[in-house]
Design a protein that fits this description.
Blueprint: H1 6-19, E1 30-34, E2 41-43, E3 48-52, H2 53-58, H3 62-75
Parallel strand pairs: 1-3
Antiparallel strand pairs: 2-3
């Protein structure tokens, strides 16, 4: 997990935009990047969401990254 830095800040900023929606349920979401080139993301009970760098590297635009984040938020 990339604990700090511009990439984690960026993922967190995108995630918080989604987390502020009423449908997100008000959980204490935490969004972090994982230094892994595979295309994967996962969420854990209670709010942690992790996005692999492979998602970012292979996405064609920011909307695709936000779609992955929103999908993971829907699991929570």
């Amino acid at each position: 997990v990339i604990q700090r830095g511009p990439l984690t800040d960026y993922i967190n900023m995108l995630g918080q935009k989604i987390a502020t929606q009423k449908e997100a349920g008000g959980f204490p979401y935490v969004f972090k990047a994982v230094n892994d080139p595979t295309i994967n993301a996962f969420a854990l009970p209670g709010g942690p969401v992790y996005i692999n760098t492979g998602i970012i590297l292979n996405a064609e635009n920011e909307g695709q990254v936000m779609g992955v984040i929103a999908h993971e938020v829907s699991h929570i």
